[in-house]
Design a protein that fits this description.
Blueprint lengths: L9 H11 L4 H12 L13 H10 L5 E8 L5 E7 L4 E8 L2 H4 L6 E4 L3 E3 L14 E4 L2 H15 L5 E4 L9 H12 L11 E5 L3 H8 L6 E5 L5 H7 L2 H4 L2 H14 L5 E6 L7 H14 L2 E6 L13 H13 L4 E3 L13 H14 L1
Parallel strand pairs: 4-7, 7-8, 8-9, 9-10, 10-11, 11-12
Antiparallel strand pairs: 1-2, 2-3, 3-4, 5-6
């Protein structure tokens, strides 16, 4: 299985071309064919010598993902399922803006991308890890989700959140390379401030990412405002409890200008009571963070339930009354298996059943 040409940076292309005795400007031509012209065939690269095109065909593949299925919702949220070259599956979700409800720009289109096949961190409410962890995605497999989502939707993605399948900071080296592919003028050209990396709380990697020069944004999958609640649903908290996590977040705030977002999935009879809202408000105010509340999307095979809408609104209102900026998204994708990993899990179960 050849590496993808989309995974090559200008430095890597320059080294390859020098070894072939080709001029360095060929690298610029190749990148233009890939990222601006969105080429699907090396034969299309008509301004490259035939010998170079033959070498590229022998040494590289192009796209690392193929489209399997799209699920769309009544509110225009769409989930895409992609197959990788090794037969694994990943998914991403395209979320339109809701300016009337959330004050967002009308042209805002957010893509939630995956960074791993499955997940090893075992959050109790999440579908991503139900079938175990398979592997990290390569940088081109991460950035390729953006390319395919734009082609399938016919819309330009202008906001990216790394909140899909997997733990992005457990795949830090490929994440950083994906950030280069996505933000570089020769790549997708999306500004770093429009990228948000989400983590369940890998403390050492948060510090490393804080030292990364780009002004990307950070979101924390918190989901519990006390160690007691977080221990129950997020095993990572036993290794890095809230005290250690918030030390790392204070380090982040010293290095970056952007406001941290605390992601909080509301789960009935687990973390959606007003006592947790009070604790969450205290923690958010200590970082000058904002809170994004997400009612739980039911996952087949898991016991957790979604609170009713009045309870979700009461939780949000408690935060707002405490002076914490908080958003509550009630409708996005609940009808399309939008919880991370559900569509991939169903597809791979279907494949195993067909084989058996």
């Amino acid at each position: 299985m050849h590496p993808s040409l989309f995974n090559q940076t200008p430095v890597e292309l320059a080294a390859m071309l020098e070894g072939l005795g080709e001029p360095s400007y060929r690298g610029t031509q190749i990148l233009e064919w890939l990222w601006q012209k969105r080429s699907t065939s090396i034969d299309e690269m008509s301004n490259l010598p035939v010998g170079l095109r033959d070498h590229l065909k022998e040494s590289f593949s192009l796209r690392s993902l193929t489209h399997v299925r799209t699920q769309g919702s009544h509110d225009s949220t769409r989930k895409f399922l992609f197959r990788l070259q090794d037969g694994c599956h990943v998914e991403c979700v395209l979320i339109p803006a809701s300016p009337a409800l959330y004050g967002e720009r009308a042209d805002r289109r957010t893509l939630c991308v995956s960074s791993q096949v499955g997940c090893a961190y075992g959050c109790k409410f999440c579908a991503s890890g139900l079938d175990g962890f398979s592997r990290n995605l390569t940088a081109d497999e991460i950035a390729g989700q953006v390319l395919l989502a734009e082609e399938l939707s016919g819309e330009k993605v202008n906001n990216i959140v790394f909140m899909g399948m997997g733990e992005p900071l457990a795949n830090l080296s490929q994440l950083l390379k994906a950030l280069e592919l996505i933000t570089a003028p020769w790549g997708l050209g999306i500004g770093a401030r429009r990228l948000t990396v989400s983590t369940a709380g890998l403390v050492p990697q948060i510090r490393k990412l804080a030292d990364h020069p780009q002004q990307i944004r950070l979101a924390i999958s918190l989901h519990g405002a006390s160690d007691e609640v977080r221990d129950r649903i997020m095993p990572i908290n036993r290794k890095w409890p809230l005290s250690e996590l918030f030390k790392a977040l204070r380090y982040w705030t010293k290095r970056k200008k952007q406001t941290i977002t605390l992601e909080y999935i509301l789960i009935d009879d687990v973390n959606a009571d007003l006592a947790q809202a009070t604790l969450l408000a205290q923690r958010a105010k200590s970082l000058h963070a904002k809170v994004n509340l997400i009612p739980y999307n039911t996952v087949e095979g898991l016991p957790w339930k979604r609170p009713d809408d009045p309870q979700c609104r009461a939780f949000r209102d408690a935060l707002v009354k405490s002076g914490v900026p908080a958003t509550l998204r009630l409708e996005k994708g609940h009808d399309i298996d939008a919880a991370c990993g559900q569509l991939r899990l169903k597809e791979e179960k279907k494949i195993r059943t067909d084989v058996d």
